[in-house]
């Protein structure tokens, strides 16, 4: 084949041009990422049991999950970690087995368990994912936790509306939680129990489907929207109706607090309260492009900040990525120049250039093959 191409230089040149075009196309479509995407072959089962000790969670939840799935084919190891208020069971899938099929099998087994404690929440079963953010956005200042999280949510939504950014999440911020506290004196005065208040909230705070109405123009779906989200919504829930027609609401017998989960979490940046926003790349997005758009948004947002609030970026991994790419390109140019000079010492300069040209062409062909 080498002899044939030596006699047919036009075919050799056409092949070289084709390889160069395909290689350039592949380079333009290769996803640029800071760290390789890794999908560990692990199924995760998480169950919350508020107020329970680690030992109670282990015996009441973790052990029962382990016993339910231990005989499934394809499980390499089972690891569980129980802490106050919940447990996480990690099921590692053996090589040669499909993690998604294992996910379905585990879900079927866990859903069939009917001996969980009554207060245990519904198990969350999923494939474990390991993602690495490209850049972090820090929002910090002297504002309250509520104000910082509210503004961080607006920033997150703005970033999601930016073309080319599709995955953003908050970190270092506690989740919202509604607390309803009733004293024994109030319960005694209104002849109520905590169970009755809980049942009233459970039956009133929900969105329910009421079927549909068939008309000549088509079907009309009927849905009741009663899900409570804020303190005022819970305050107005009716707990009891007296024989005289008077109504007792949640606000009459309990104090509703619209706050955050009771979690030992304090996040600071430059010595001030802060909320972090992690920005990720997905699919074929370029990590460098995602970070560039994020920094441009931060620069634009500087003039719109409320008094006492600051925003900046932190842990920008795209800078390390650009440094690596610069090192690769610099090394390639220096190595290519040395190859040309060394070949020129023993061959004619024209021949040396053509021989050296084979190196980048080979790389482009290899990149296209790997991409394909």
Strand content: 25-35%
Number of strands: 15
| Alpha plus pi helix count | 12
Mean pLDDT: 88
| Low-confidence residue ranges | none
Query: Cα-atom Rg, whole angstroms?
Result: 31 Å
Relative helix content: 40-55%
First-last Cα distance? 24 Å
Class by alpha and beta content: alpha+beta
- SSE string, helices as H and strands as E: HHEHEEHEEHEEHHEEHEEHEEEHEHH
Overall body shape: elongated
Give the biggest sheet.
Answer: 5 strands, antiparallel
Structure described in brief:
The chain is an alpha+beta fold and 372 residues long.
How would you describe what is shown here?
With 372 residues, this protein is of the alpha+beta class. The chain is 45% helix and 25% strand. It contains 12 helices and 15 strands. A hairpin with a 2-residue loop joins strand 8 (207-215) and strand 9. The radius of gyration is 31 Å and the shape is elongated.
What is the topology?
Blueprint: H1 2-7, H2 9-29, E1 42-48, H3 54-69, E2 75-83, E3 86-93, H4 99-111, E4 124-127, E5 135-141, H5 145-160, E6 167-171, E7 176-181, H6 184-189, H7 194-204, E8 207-215, E9 218-225, H8 231-235, E10 238-241, E11 247-249, H9 250-253, E12 255-260, E13 268-269, E14 272-280, H10 287-301, E15 309-314, H11 317-346, H12 349-371
Antiparallel strand pairs: 1-3, 1-4, 2-3, 5-14, 5-15, 6-14, 7-12, 8-9, 10-11, 13-14
Kindly list the characteristics that best describe this protein.
alpha+beta, 372 residues, 45% helix, 4-stranded antiparallel β-sheet, single chain, 5-stranded antiparallel β-sheet
């Amino acid at each position: 084949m080498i002899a044939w191409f030596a006699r047919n230089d036009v075919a050799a040149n056409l092949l070289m041009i084709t390889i160069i075009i395909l290689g350039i196309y592949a380079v333009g479509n290769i996803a640029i990422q800071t760290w390789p995407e890794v999908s560990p072959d692990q199924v995760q089962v998480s169950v919350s049991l508020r107020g329970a000790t680690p030992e109670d969670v282990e015996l009441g939840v973790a052990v029962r999950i382990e016993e339910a799935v231990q005989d499934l084919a394809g499980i390499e190891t089972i690891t569980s970690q129980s802490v106050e208020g919940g447990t996480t069971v990690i099921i590692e899938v053996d090589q040669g087995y499909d993690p998604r099929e294992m996910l379905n099998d585990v879900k079927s087994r866990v859903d069939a368990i009917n001996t969980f404690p009554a207060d245990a929440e519904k198990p969350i079963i999923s494939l474990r994912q390991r993602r690495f953010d490209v850049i972090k956005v820090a929002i910090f200042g002297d504002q309250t936790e509520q104000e910082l999280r509210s503004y961080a949510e607006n920033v997150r939504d703005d970033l999601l509306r930016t073309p080319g950014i599709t995955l953003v999440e908050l970190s270092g911020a506690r989740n919202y939680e509604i607390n309803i506290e009733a004293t024994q004196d109030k319960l005694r005065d209104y002849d109520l129990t905590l169970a009755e208040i809980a049942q009233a909230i459970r039956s009133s705070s929900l969105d329910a489907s009421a079927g549909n109405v068939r008309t000549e123009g088509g079907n009309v779906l009927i849905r009741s929207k009663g899900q409570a989200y804020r303190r005022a919504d819970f305050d107005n829930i009716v707990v009891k109706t007296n024989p005289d027609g008077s109504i007792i609401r949640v606000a009459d017998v309990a104090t509703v607090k619209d706050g955050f989960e009771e979690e030992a979490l304090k996040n600071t940046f430059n010595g001030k309260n802060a909320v972090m926003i992690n920005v990720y790349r997905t699919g074929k997005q370029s990590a460098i492009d995602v970070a560039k758009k994020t920094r441009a948004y931060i620069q634009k947002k500087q003039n719109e900040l409320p008094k006492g609030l600051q925003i900046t970026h932190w842990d920008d991994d795209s800078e390390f990525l650009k440094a690596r790419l610069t090192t690769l390109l610099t090394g390639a140019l220096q190595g290519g120049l040395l190859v040309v000079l060394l070949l020129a010492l023993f061959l004619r300069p024209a021949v040396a250039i053509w021989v050296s040209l084979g190196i980048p062409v080979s790389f482009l062909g290899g990149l296209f093959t790997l991409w394909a």
